Amino acid sequence: MREYRWTPGQGMDAAALESLHGRFGRPGEPMGEAWFMGETRRMYPHLLGDLDKLSAEEIQRPMAEIAAGYSSFGPMEEWHQWYHYLLSRMLPRCHDGTFMASVVETLITGFIAIYPNGVHVAPYKRFCEDTLRTLGQCMMEPQCWNGREIAIGEVLHRNNRNPAGLWGWWDTSGDFSASLFFCLKYLPGELVPGWLRSVLEISDPHWRAQVLVWAVGAHDMLLGNVKWPVELEEQARPSVTWDWSYCLRAEMAALDTSGAMPMSSFLPDEAREKALHVLHTYFNEDVLLEWLDSISRVDYLYAELAEIPSRFETLFVGKQR
Fold first, then answer.
1. For residue 102, what are the β-bridge partners?
2. Which tens digit of pLDDT belongs to each residue from 127-137?
């Protein structure tokens, strides 16, 4: 790839999706759970049928088993085959899911579990590029945007239907956090700055709020102080965890059978350093003030961020790297 950008409304590449779909057929045997201690092992025979007739939750559960299985027991061909089959079939439903998590989060967790050291041995030549052009682009799907503004309720925090009437904008939405980390982990290092700048160029206030929140919550990982997602605190303020991200731990890199050199941390050093450089050079006081002015026009958004913009300023503004 010569360039990689996030542009609202320009979602998954149709040719890349078709390529993924055509490469991975349905396995002949049902998939089983990641648990081998009992006399019988739970199986998921419903995956052998028509996936379109299943709810997202009915498919997310076995997909989560793949990540948990790799985390607990290491690679297994059964899970490898089923994940790649489910990947292409569930990408068109990437923003379906439960109240707590969308399909894109579960897909990203499973992908990282299988390829913790990068895609060292790809199922086919353009596999990594195809996944970046599809799974990595889910946040830009047309359904998520009304022009340059997010379609509220379709992406990021979905609603405020709770007794307190709060959206939770002080945390990073799981779809947003998972997608940012996915691109940082698998994009070629030279493409990271251009991609991240495209993320920062999106002017929607809800999006900008999430960028600030994610940057503060991910700061220790960008510095390399936090090595793997398992170390991220779900109750942190702000939280940058996503669906089943706590399964992703250092031991998975050592258990990888692809022949890749185990990575010492979740993110490549080059990606971390370039991301920090972009954030530090993009923001100055005037830019941050313009961002905060646009965010403040949405009362609930500004109120829920509370102290996080001040923390962002302390960490990123005026600190060149």
1. 97
2. 999 999 999 99
The angle subtended at Cα 176 by Cα 100 and Cα 207, nearest 5°, is 115
Question: What's residue 158's pLDDT?
Answer: 84
Identify which of 101, 202, 181 has the alpha carbon closest to the alpha carbon of residue 136.
Answer: 181
CA atoms of 222 and 278, how far apart (whole Å): 12
- SS3 for 101-169 is CEHHHHHHHHHHHHCECECCCCCCCCHHHHHHHHHHHHHHCHHHEECCEECECCECCCCCCCCCCCCCC
Q: Note whether 128 and 119 are within 8 A (CB).
A: yes
Structure token digits, residue 272: 């971390």
- In the numeric block, the tokens 């996936």 are attached to 51
Q: Using a cut of 0.85, tell me whether the model's pTM lies above it.
A: yes
Contacts of 92 (CB under 8 A, 6+ apart): 17
> pLDDT tens across 156-214, in order?
998 888 888 889 999 999 999 999 999 999 999 999 999 999 999 999 999 999 999 99
CA-nearest of 81, 83, 117 to 251 is 117
| Segment (H or E) for 271 | helix 269-282
**DSSP state, 261?**
P
CA angle 225, 174, 178 (to 5 degrees): 60
Task: Convert the pLDDT of each residue in 35-64 to its tens digit.
Answer: 766 678 889 999 999 999 999 999 999 999
Structural contact between residues 131 and 111, judged by C-beta atoms closer than 8 angstroms? yes
Taking the C-alpha atoms of residue 176 and residue 172, their distance in angstroms, rounded to an integer, is 7
Local confidence band at 151 (pLDDT 50, 70, 90 cut-offs): very high
Instruction: Note if the bond before 238 is cis, omega within 30 degrees.
Output: yes
Q: How far apart are CA 264 and CA 161, in angstroms?
A: 41
